[in-house]
Amino acid sequence: MVAQVLRFQKIKGSPDIASVFQHDTRDHVPDHADAKRTLQNIRLMGSEAGAGADYLAWKEMLPDKYRADAVVLGSVVVSGNADKINEMAGRKVKDGPHKGRSEAEAYLRDGLDWFKKKLGEENIVSAYIHNDEKSPHLHILWTPRYTNEKGQT
Fold first, then answer.
1. Whether 80 contacts 103, CB under 8 Å
2. Which ranges in the chain belong to alpha helices (H)?
3. For position 151, what pLDDT does the model report?
4. Per residue in 83-124, pLDDT tens?
5. Using an 8 Å Cβ cutoff, are 72 and 62 in contact?
6. pTM reported for the whole predicted model
7. How far is it, in rounded angstroms, from Cα 48 to Cα 78?
8. For the chain, what is the mean pLDDT?
9. With 80 as the cut, is the pLDDT of residue 147 above it?
10. Cα gap 148→97, rounded to integer Å
């Protein structure tokens, strides 16, 4: 059994936001990624057009007004302990909805399904599986939204 690893980040300011979108979509390939394996990354949610399109979709999700110190974007990375998830990446699922995919990809897709239920699928901006780093992992970006007692978003 894989030990689940989750990393959450609250993002408030614009400079951070642009770099997060570029990282997740691989519009900018970081030094720690293997550029030869970037094509093995998988877009589960988000635009085929890349970071700019995901950024515009996120902007559309924001309310007209929000506090200057508001968290406007949430980021979570879903992974597992490196040895186990790399081992899972080498095995294929034999049956069920993930048949033919690697066990690691199936595990990460199940993670996205769980977050869709918890965060609301309509609040998720993008989701990408990165296979070009040390071990497979999933990046999810979402807009934290809620409605107050006055019905305001």
1. no
2. 14-25, 51-61, 82-89, 103-119
3. 66
4. 999 999 998 998 888 889 999 999 999 999 999 999 999 999
5. yes
6. 0.90
7. 21
8. 90
9. no
10. 38
What is the reported pLDDT for 3? Answer: 78
Q: What is the token pair recorded at 108? A: 């990460």
pLDDT tens digits for range 50-74:
999 999 999 999 888 888 888 899 9
Distances in Å between the Cα of 44 and the Cα atoms of 58, 136, 153 are: 16, 14, 27
Are the CB atoms for 126 and 11 separated by under 8 Å? no
Task: Confirm if 135 and 86 have CB atoms less than 8 A apart.
Answer: yes
What is the signed CA dihedral for 90, 134, 38, 5, rounded to 10 degrees? 80
Residue type, 21: F
Helices 14-25 and 51-61, interaxial angle, to 10°? 130
What single-letter amino acid sits at 146?
Y
| Amino acid residing at 78 | V
Rg (CA), the chain: 16
Q: Look at residues 45, 7, 51, 53 and name the one whose alpha carbon lies nearest to residue 25.
A: 51
